[in-house]
Amino acid sequence: MQIESPMLFVEVSQTYCIITAGKHDENQKFVILEKIFLQMEEINKDKFFNSEETIKLLKDNIEIIEKKINHIFREVTVILDVYNYFCLNLSGSKKLNGSQVL
Q: What is the sign of the dihedral through the CA atoms of 27, 33, 37 and 42?
């Protein structure tokens, strides 16, 4: 990871989603470049009811941030605010090309 390179964080909670882009400055302090707060009606009791609309909403807002700061993100840190969970399934339609899901 390059220090100058912006990082993307997506925090998902039961009622909201926060997409934040930021980077470290020359003093190693984290500076927020862009932040989008989304009210998520599709999320209820830790489940996405309409996953297609939710995915489109997240993609569109990440694209807005990428255009504003003129950077395309290759990695994302997902922060889940889930208190009661038994199983967490992550899936995608494309191969991960050697990347890991941690």
A: negative
